[in-house]
Design goal:
The structure holds two protein chains of two kinds.
Chain A: H1 2-14, H2 25-39, H3 49-53, H4 55-76, H5 83-86, E1 91-96, E2 102-105, H6 112-125, H7 129-133, E3 139-142, H8 145-148, E4 154-163, E5 166-176, E6 205-209, E7 212-213, H9 215-224, H10 228-256, H11 258-283, E8 287-298, E9 311-322, E10 328-331, H12 347-358, H13 370-374, E11 376-379, H14 399-420, E12 438-442, E13 448-452, H15 486-492, E14 495-502, E15 518-524, E16 528-533, E17 557-563, H16 565-570, H17 588-591, E18 594-600, E19 608-610, E20 615-620, H18 634-642, H19 648-653, E21 659-661, E22 667-669, H20 671-688, H21 692-704, H22 710-722, H23 724-733
Parallel strand pairs in A: 10-11
Antiparallel strand pairs in A: 1-2, 1-5, 3-4, 3-6, 4-5, 6-7, 8-9, 9-10, 12-13, 12-16, 14-15, 15-20, 16-19, 17-18, 17-20, 21-22
Helix pairs in contact in A: 4-10, 6-12, 10-11
Chain B: H1 7-10, H2 22-30, H3 37-40, E1 41-42, E2 60-67, E3 71-78, E4 83-89, H4 95-108, H5 114-117, E5 123-128, H6 130-136, E6 143-148, H7 154-157, H8 169-173, E7 190-193, E8 196-197, E9 203-205, H9 212-221, E10 226-230, H10 239-255, E11 261-263, H11 264-267, H12 273-303, E12 311-313, E13 319-321, H13 337-349, E14 354-359, E15 364-370, E16 373-374, E17 376-377, E18 381-382, E19 385-386, E20 391-392, E21 395-397, E22 403-407, E23 414-420, H14 439-446, H15 463-478, H16 482-507, E24 516-520, H17 524-532, E25 539-543, H18 549-555, E26 559-571, H19 577-604, E27 613-622, E28 629-632, H20 641-659, E29 670-681, E30 703-711, E31 714-722, E32 731-733, E33 736-739, E34 744-747, E35 752-755, E36 760-764
Helix pairs in contact in B: 4-12, 6-12, 9-10, 13-18, 14-15, 14-16, 15-16, 16-17
Classes of the chains: A alpha+beta, B alpha+beta.
């Protein structure tokens, strides 16, 4: 034994460094960081000699790489079984430099441009070069959030690329898997409050050699998740794509020469940095733009450990500064503490995820790489929900607040577009991309199964300054949204559709309304030992309208257990079919009898048992609106009424429309009377209004007396605890006495993790 | 038809490939005005002399019709493989008038008349854009839709993917550009009827028959002109749709108001309700109304003495009768003409694997013929709608001769297309009013195309304008000389096309060395050498009639029906004999059903079953996967368990090739997801030119002199040859440019080309 060990020690010592010119990867990483920091240019490149002297060849290499990476994704995804990957395109491939800076990325979930890079950097930092060794044909896997991930269901496959003995790059592939063996089935399960509930976590592990997956890995991983078939085919998808891209890179090196390739990968990142800066300069106006968003975490009555049973709010103030030199800075000073729920995020999911949003508006092109990262700066307070200071945090649905925290950034950018006259580019913000229908058990094929509906990939879009946002169309994490065909979802889920309907009033009202969401009513059918749960905002709206527009509607849940639907069917009586257009005037309940109906604002739930003929309403949200609703064209209101996009009471109340139905039941807006009514509403507004200072005085009293719901106090207390700057700013703004403060310890609720952190 | 600026199609803001098609392009190049006979008549064996045709001496064989929104073109091919092109104004109210005018115009060049030539014709193939226009401009019938109660919104919601179909990569990301087109059937003309069937075909909620009458009456009262029925999973359980269909017929009869009715399962018994419903609606909305038009054309043509039944080009790459049940597949046919032509030519020449490439004014279209078969996409999209038609799989890149070239002001990168100047050519054509540099401008700067002989001299180009524009817009920003910039643009374009071509072949699991590349379209041969460079194709073929190749292809299409059916047959890895037997039993039954369907169609044109050549296909995947592979069954009738193993073996082999062996997953078991039957009958097709071999030395009269051309960093001299005057057997070494009125073929230095007996050039790359 001793002999073997010493042999191994000799071997690893004798292992040559695999970086350029005999350097270790760690040395290369440090050098790039130093040069970039010192010069302000990526890798110290003041000039781009290759691009400048031979722009055509440079473009040819770029086109070949980019085309190849996109093609690999398109081909590989057909291997997958999961509709999440195949139908919704939840996968992405990225090529990296040896130091793990991204060069070029495919389409898809491009948030992982950064996360896989972070995982590779982690391996470099931890001397993987020595042990376990990095060799040609190796395959690595990571899904550990705190190493480099958004949430554990995004599983990375990482493959090194060697040219001779030298490591010339890495390729990473990621897919969103359907289950990772967490406390409850489904990829983004509700229920985990710590890392140890979040499911199977693979921390940058070598899982294959000589292009072959190791048997122990295959056995262990298959035994650790519920949906083994999907896991297996997803992994084969990732490996196939990575190998296609590796072959492509080697072919390019063969054609162009290794020195050209090395020069190219440096220049393309610096080029990306410059391009991003130019884009910022031509689209925006320098200045500081502020926004804020909130989302509810209603855990008090959930089936979670006692220290997690807290109703609270996540807080995301953001300040976007556009500098005169085109550099972008986004500071989240004031965000509150991470919590005992699975909505915590990691810095890389913010810094990298922001490109997902920016590529839909500011930089919609194929040049997204780490250059943009080098052109920006982020303030991500340590200890907060987006940069936790504790190993124990859970992340399974980090998107819950990421999508909300980005909505103010759309608005900030939109203000600058508006100021610059790019009215078409204005977007009032993204929808909260929920509900997430998830669950599992034995499915209609008698298999152990988990479901995770991605109907949420088609939410309402925020309004622009010239037109309504489009309905049921996109998600901020995937602009190429799609709701998929019902017949395909029924293959994946033992849930019969009883309706798929546009949901009125869900887009925010405005001169231009937000795109409406939609809803699907599902009846459990063919399932056994089946549970499901809800995941979305319920008590709070997580976006905000823009320039007078309303926010989108928030969520709620509807579920019915022990129904008499079978009897109704047998007697051919009317059934609950279609949508729930007016939750204030519910209709389903009039048609069915049930042992239990839950219809409330608790839109986040943990596992509930569902039997056949039970009902579940999946409601996908709308987008926020733009401009004062009183300025909306009456004709547009008429169309909305007749097409089921707006409930009549709100046409009157919010839009000030005077409406009537004709003989055929079609709504007609009386334009003259509407004008009159709107004038009255404006008068009422003036009457109701008061000077800001006066209003602030009243509010200040409340703040002084700490008159606020416990959730609000908890949210601010933990923001204050993390940031003196934010606290001072808050106190100055409200003109509060020096000693005024709210502390977590004074709230009488569990504050585990606030005092002791485990690194 | 896009290049001719048809107003209807201009409504579509994004280029979509339905409208781009080699044949159309040629027609546009020939222009709307009267052209010289040289332009209009392809005379491959002309031998440099004016050939004089006498009335009656021309044995016209095949009539191919392309009826566009503004112009109707006819191609008439004789028994020697020569063809003439005729043009006339389209007459949408009675398309046959425009058609006959156009045919008259064409036949003038052979000094003959419709009355004399039509009785000689042995086949006629129609292809038109009327149906597509009706669809895109939403001017179809007023259709009512009956769906499951609770799903009345699903059609108008569409699929979110329809909000960005046909978009460039950049706009797909760019959320604020996404938009939905209006639904084909508005919400107010949609009614729900209670019923639900699950994915296995079990009835969960029986049909509430008492709701049917109200739904039908409501729709009739709203003056619908047709009714479509589409229930979820009807492909698994057709009875409910058919019951509603029959009830509706009775109700209509009773009320004395009858409109056509379409149950989706009678047309497209395929999974994915958006695709199936869209396609069935198109059948009612746009296709069925076209049937009358076709009937009238058929009648008029027969009145002029024609003895053939008119056939229509269909999306699966064959032609079908206008009496066919499923006419929606004739919605688009244009872009596939060239591919069908390549398949026909390949069969004639004994070439099984062909990479088709076609460059026109606006796009580069690629398709593969593998083992003699076209690839078929079974859930394609057209006109921004997802459909369940079998469509010849083509990849289209928005990069053609008219594509705009821009330098991104912020990223300083060169972007090619995706938009295009189309028929306006480029800045070099002042009449076009184009301000942005196009690929053609670069051609002019480099001397690759003759500015005084563009389209046979019809359009005069101004090199100095191109030079100035390239200088300001491309060369100066990149810090290059004008010539280097223009050369670089072409180099980049060809390099990108090469990447696409290579990816497409690799994605199929093959390598280019296993394929012969066919290059055609007006702009193809100009770039053939560039986009095939280094790929190692087995051979590279450029037909001398490259510009008219799509038209040739339409005339060469088989008379073929293809019907598909969704199946869900699962066989586990550990399955016993009985399961396998059951599986082949079910597949065989589906084949028999589809075979009957195909045979019925042919009977409409009096082809008995024994004259039909049937081919059987299946779609298979590993259990749980969502993508299957279409495979031709090596066995025509399934009987034994061994037959099952043969099917599995065929699947495994294809799978390993397409996705790499490591991706094989036999441990998951197999699913047969579909059955397909194709039936083909023999029909007359155009002759492929045949001429005696002359020597290698081209005739002197074919030599047009030299022209300075900028190539790889310096001005050099290219020999210019007149393509039509070259003879079979001639060899030409690069640097040479072969000019014809509608196309230009570049033979770079070191390359060589040889003209074979069929007037096909073979391009040889230097080792």
């Amino acid at each position: 034994m001793a002999n073997v060990q010493s042999e191994w020690a000799v071997q690893s010592k004798a292992r040559r460094p695999i970086g350029f010119q005999g350097k270790t990867l760690k040395q290369m990483r440090e050098e790039i960081d130093r040069l970039s920091r010192e010069t302000g240019h990526y890798a110290g490149l003041y000039e781009l000699p290759f691009k400048e002297s031979d722009p055509i060849r440079y473009e040819k290499i770029f086109a070949k790489l980019r085309g190849g990476v996109v093609h690999a994704r398109e081909t590989a995804k057909r291997v997958a079984a999961s509709p999440i990957v195949e139908q919704e395109g939840e996968l992405c491939f990225t090529l990296y430099t040896p130091e793990a800076d991204s060069i070029v990325t495919s389409t898809g979930i491009i948030i992982h441009v950064g996360t896989m890079g972070a995982a590779i950097k982690y391996m470099i930092r931890n001397d993987y070069e020595e042990n376990p060794g990095i060799e040609p044909g190796d395959i690595f896997c990571n899904n550990d959030c705190q190493i480099g991930n958004v949430h554990p269901c995004d599983v990375h496959t990482i493959v090194p690329i060697f040219w001779g003995d030298e490591l010339v790059g890495w390729v990473g592939g990621v897919t969103h898997v359907i289950d990772v063996g967490a406390t409850a089935p489904g990829s983004m399960t509700v229920g985990p409050v710590t890392r140890y509930d979040d499911g199977y976590q693979v921390a940058c592990r070598k899982i294959g050699k000589n292009d072959t997956l190791l048997r122990d890995w295959l056995i262990e991983s298959q035994r650790s998740v519920r949906t083994t078939k999907y896991w297996l085919l997803d992994e084969r998808t990732r490996v196939a794509g990575c190998h296609m891209i590796r072959d492509l890179v080697l072919q390019i090196i063969e054609e162009e020469g290794i020195d050209t390739y090395k020069q190219f990968i440096r220049e393309v990142i610096e080029d990306g940095r410059r391009g991003f800066i130019n884009q910022v300069k031509s689209m925006t106006i320098p200045g500081t733009y502020r926004g804020v968003s909130f989302v509810d975490v209603p855990y008090k009555n959930l089936d979670v450990p006692p220290y997690a049973r807290v109703n609270t709010i996540m807080h995301a103030p953001s300040e976007m500064t556009i500098h005169k030199d085109g550099k972008l800075e986004i500071d989240f000073e004031g965000v509150n503490r991470w919590g005992w729920h699975s909505y915590n995020a990691t810095p890389v999911s913010i810094t990298s995820g922001i490109w997902v949003m920016l590529s839909q508006t500011l930089i919609p092109n194929d040049r997204v790489n780490d250059g943009a990262y080098y052109a920006s700066r982020f303030g991500l307070p340590y200890g907060s929900w987006l940069n936790p200071d504790d190993i124990r945090t859970a992340h399974s649905y980090a998107w819950h607040f990421l999508v909300s925290a980005w909505s103010p950034l759309w608005r900030s950018l939109s203000r600058t577009y508006f100021a610059r006259g790019y009215l078409e580019e204005v977007n009032a913000g993204n929808a909260n991309t929920s509900n997430w229908l998830q669950g599992g058990g034995y499915n209609q094929f008698h298999e152990n199964h988990a479901v995770n509906s991605f109907e949420s990939a088609a939410e309402g879009v925020g309004a622009s300054a010239v037109k309504d946002g489009i309905d049921h169309a996109a998600a901020v994490w995937n602009p190429e949204g799609d709701m998929g065909d019902m017949e395909i979802w029924e293959l994946a889920e033992p849930l019969l559709y009883l309706g798929r309907t546009i949901k009125p009033n869900t887009g925010g009202y405005g001169k231009y309304r937000g795109g409406n969401g939609y809803e699907t009513l599902r009846m459990v059918w063919g399932a056994k030992d089946w549970t499901m749960f809800f995941m979305g905002n319920g008590y709070m709206t997580s976006d905000c309208g823009l320039m007078g527009g309303y926010p989108a509607a928030s969520g709620y849940r509807f579920e019915a257990h022990g129904t008499n639907i079978k009897e109704l069917i047998d007697k051919k009586l009317p059934l609950p079919l279609g949508g729930d257009p007016d939750p204030g005037n519910p209709q389903y309940e009039k048609l069915i009898k049930a042992r239990e109906i839950k219809r409330d604002k608790q839109a986040i739930t943990t596992e509930e048992i569902f039997e056949n003929y039970d009902l579940y309403l999946n409601y996908l949200r709308g987008g926020p609106g733009f401009g004062d609703p009183l300025e909306r064209n009456p004709k547009a209101i008429e169309t909305d009424l007749n097409e089921g996009h707006l409930l009549p009471a709100y046409a009157e109340k919010v839009y000030g429309a005077v409406i009537a139905q004709d003989q055929k039941g079609r709504w007609v807006v009386d334009e003259a009377k509407t004008e009159q009514r709107r004038a009255e509403i404006r008068q009422e507004r003036i009457k109701r209004g008061k000077p800001t200072r006066e209003w602030m005085k009243q509010e200040r009293e409340k703040i002084l007396n700490k008159q606020a719901a416990i959730q609000v106090r908890h949210m601010y207390a933990s923001s204050f605890a993390l940031s003196e700057k934010f606290t001072n700013h808050f106190k100055q703004f409200w003109d509060l006495p020096e000693e005024w403060i709210i502390k977590e310890s004074e709230l009488g609720i569990p504050v585990f993790g606030a005092r002791n952190q485990l690194q | 038809m896009l290049p001719r600026g048809k107003p209807v199609l201009q409504q579509a803001e994004k280029p979509f490939r339905d409208t781009i098609h080699g044949w159309h392009r040629l027609c546009f190049m020939l222009g709307g005005s009267k052209s010289s006979p040289l332009v209009r008549t392809y005379q491959p064996i002309l031998d440099g002399r004016e050939m004089i045709y006498h009335m009656g001496s021309v044995n016209a064989q095949i009539l191919a019709i392309d009826a566009g929104g503004t112009m109707t073109d006819t191609f008439i091919i004789n028994d020697k493989g020569e063809f003439v092109v005729g043009k006339a104004q389209s007459t949408p109210e009675d398309e046959s008038i425009g058609l006959l005018n156009s045919a008259r115009d064409a036949l003038l060049y052979w000094n003959t008349t419709v009355e004399d030539a039509f009785p000689q014709l042995v086949a006629g193939v129609y292809s038109g854009t009327a149906m597509l226009n009706r669809l895109v401009s939403r001017k179809g019938r007023r259709v009512g839709l009956i769906v499951n109660k609770g799903m009345e919104d699903f059609h108008r919601m569409g699929r979110a993917i329809q909000a960005y179909l046909g978009y460039s990569y950049s706009d797909r990301l760019h959320l604020n550009t996404h938009r939905y087109d209006p639904p084909l059937v508005p919400r107010e003309l949609t009614r729900g009827v209670t019923e639900r069937v699950d994915l296995f075909g079990n009835v969960v909620i029986p049909l509430y028959e008492h709701e049917v009458e109200q739904a039908v009456v409501d729709l009739l009262e709203q003056q619908v002109e047709a009714i479509v029925i589409s229930f979820l999973h009807s492909y698994k359980y057709p009875a409910h749709e058919r019951r509603v269909r029959d009830m509706a017929k009775d109700i209509m009869k009773k009320r004395g108001k009858e409109v056509p009715i379409f149950a989706s399962v009678d047309y497209y018994p395929l999974r994915k309700e958006s695709h199936r419903t869209n396609t069935t609606i198109i059948e009612a909305y746009a296709a069925d109304p076209s049937r009358e038009t076709l009937l009238k054309i058929d009648k008029r043509v027969k009145e002029k003495g024609a003895k053939f039944d008119l056939r229509v080009m269909a999306s699966h790459g064959g032609t079908i009768s206008f009496q066919a049940n499923e006419l929606a597949r004739t919605l688009v046919s244009g872009p596939i003409g060239g591919v069908v032509g390549a398949k026909y030519l390949g069969e004639y020449l004994g070439i099984r694997n062909i990479a088709c490439s076609d460059i026109g004014g606006t796009s580069f279209d690629m398709a593969l013929i593998t083992q003699g078969d076209l690839s078929i996409n079974t859930s394609p999209d057209m006109a921004r709608l997802v459909l369940s038609l079998p469509l010849v799989a083509m990849d289209t890149v928005g990069a053609g001769a008219g594509s705009y070239i821009r330098i991104d002001p912020n990223f300083k990168s060169i972007t090619l297309g995706p938009d295009s100047a189309g028929y306006r050519v480029g800045v070099c054509n002042p009449a076009g009013g184009v301000e942005t540099v196009t690929v053609s401008d670069c051609h002019v700067v480099l001397g690759l195309i003759n500015p005084d002989n563009f389209l046979g001299g019809e359009v005069k180009l101004y090199p100095e304008r191109a030079y100035q524009a390239v200088k300001e817009q491309i060369a100066d920003p990149l810090g290059l000389s004008v010539e280097d910039a223009a050369y670089g643009v072409i180099d980049l374009l060809e390099s990108q096309l090469r990447n696409y071509l290579e990816s497409m072949i690799l994605g199929k699991g093959y390598s280019p060395s296993q394929y012969v590349c066919f290059s055609y379209g007006g702009g193809g041969p100009l770039h053939t050498a560039g986009y095939t460079k280094g790929l190692g194709f087995e051979d590279i073929l450029v037909p001398a009639w490259a510009a008219g190749f799509s038209a040739f292809g339409c005339g060469a299409a088989d008379f073929e029906y293809r019907y598909d059916k969704t199946l869900d047959i699962n066989v586990n890895a550990t399955a016993g004999e009985q399961e396998k037997k059951d599986a082949i039993g079910e597949l065989q039954q589906a084949w028999s059903e589809l075979m009957d369907k195909v045979a019925d169609e042919f009977e409409k044109n009096s082809f008995p079953r024994d004259q039909v050549e049937f081919r059987f296909y299946f779609r298979m995947q590993y259990q749980g996967q969502l993508n299957d592979l279409e495979i031709e069954s090596p066995i025509k009738a399934l009987r034994t368990v061994e037959d099952w193993e043969v099917l599995v073996h065929a699947f495994e082999e294809t799978y390993g090739r397409v996705y790499a062996k490591a991706a094989r997953s036999p441990e998951l078991g197999y699913s047969v997801t579909g059955a397909i039957v194709r039936g083909i009958v023999e029909v007359p097709k155009p002759k492929i030119p045949e001429e005696p071999l002359s020597g290698e030395q081209p005739p002197t009269e074919a030599y047009l002199g030299t022209r300075p051309v900028y190539w790889k960093g310096k001005w050099t001299t290219a020999d210019i040859w007149e393509m039509e005057k070259l003879k079979a057997g001639n060899r030409i070494k690069g640097f040479a440019i072969l000019e014809s009125t509608a196309t230009t073929f570049v033979i770079p230095p070191g390359y060589e080309t040889r003209l074979d007996r069929h007037r096909i050039f073979h391009l040889k790359e230097p080792k």
